[in-house]
């Protein structure tokens, strides 16, 4: 289950800007994108991931992704980052 993977990750970048930065710096191991997030927010990072060879995993809900990241609000994108 992807949410468990997010909860167990030692380091996360939560949010579109932070996750994009992690991918650009070559630190992201995997990017998790909420299916119900605005495509205007997620399209850029999904394209960046495909160019950079970073795996993209989709989850159903921003609310659940935010919860898995330990925040009170929904998260459109989160990146599991190399230590």
TrEMBL record:
Swiss-Prot/TrEMBL keywords: Ribonucleoprotein, Ribosomal protein
Cellular component GO terms, alphabetical: ribosome
Domain Ribosomal protein eL8/eL30/eS12/Gadd45: from-to ranges: 4-82
Gene3D superfamilies: 3.30.1330.30
Transmembrane parts of this sequence: none
Keyword Acyltransferase found: no
Keyword Ribosomal protein part of the UniProt annotation: yes
Protein name: 50S ribosomal protein L7ae-like protein
Organism in which the protein naturally occurs: Paenibacillus chitinolyticus
Lineage, uppermost ranks: Bacteria, Bacillati, Bacillota, Bacilli, Bacillales
